[in-house]
Amino acid sequence: MEFLNVTERAAIEAHKFAGRGNEKNADKAAVDSMRSTLNKMYIDGTIVIGEGERDSAPMLYSGEKVGIGGPTLDIAVDPLEGTTTCALYKDGAMSVIAVAQSGCLLKAPDVYMDKIAVGPGLPHGVVSLSSDLKTNLHSLSHAKGCAVSDLRAVVLKRDRHTALIEGLRELDARIKLIDDGDISAAMSLIRGENDIYLGIGGAPEGVLSAVLLAAVGGQIEGKLVLNTDALRERARGMGVEDMDRSYTTNDMVRGEAFFIATGVTDSLIMKGISHSEGGCITADSVIFSTLGAISRVQRTFYNPPPTGPVVRAKR
């Protein structure tokens, strides 16, 4: 619940810039808030997934220490998932954190990752990066007991996915193209809005999605896109030895971990930050734990928020 306060505060600060067209200010507000809150906690935390590597990110960079002492933890953050989404006040912006014991989260470099993911309740290895698109879709449709034409694939709308999208069209699968939000795409698999997530997105978001999916029995596989000498050198600096390795869910998150997201703007799973008369602010969050606990928490704060919530509206 202490970590819930981290994402709630970051989401509230980011929401101040929702619809104002300034991605940098929205992201900075979320980052500043998240870092400040983490540094007041009794933890010995290491940011393993953050805003980038130390030379390119002034705060919440990979390797940064947070907290004032306590249990040693790996922490993965995306203070504002969907910066453009927030700036344009579109649905799906959120503040995200994942936490595990030290050494349990993959320290992925800030590069692209080729990913394939499915939701819970499916045979292990039902899809794989080692299989072609046709094989994966037929395997998934067989496992779900439906036709390939009934499958819904979610894909980031990027030029790099032109061939992927054409392949999906040829197989007659339905496609949901999204502007932003790798983690939102992974969330959509849990409730069945989509059946499979495919394509190249951020490696940090891949690790965060792995914690989320591990908590519900979903699956993700990812392979770092290291197609230049500079990228391979950066990967080596983060401890990556096998440049061609594919990482499964269990490779990205080992042992006990939990994932928390607080909505900045509305989504299918959570409401965004809302304001009411009397200066109250309501934050809507979801918590997923690999121990099996899944919660939706809605809390209301005075404006500006005090140390903690004054009303717990719903849990």
Automatic annotation (TrEMBL):
> Catalytic activity, per the record?
beta-D-fructose 1,6-bisphosphate + H2O = beta-D-fructose 6-phosphate + phosphate
Any GO CC annotation of this UniProt entry: cytosol
Q: Which GO terms describe its biological process?
A: fructose 1,6-bisphosphate metabolic process; gluconeogenesis; glycerol metabolic process
For substrate, which residues are the binding ones?
Answer: E81, G82, T83, Y112, R158, D159, R160, D180, G181, D182, G202
Which Pfam family is one of those matched by this entry? FBPase_glpX
What keywords would UniProt list here?
Answer: Carbohydrate metabolism, Hydrolase, Manganese, Metal-binding
Named from the GO MF annotations, one term is:
metal ion binding
Q: What name does this protein carry?
A: Fructose-1,6-bisphosphatase
Q: Which organism is it from?
A: Anaplasma ovis str. Haibei
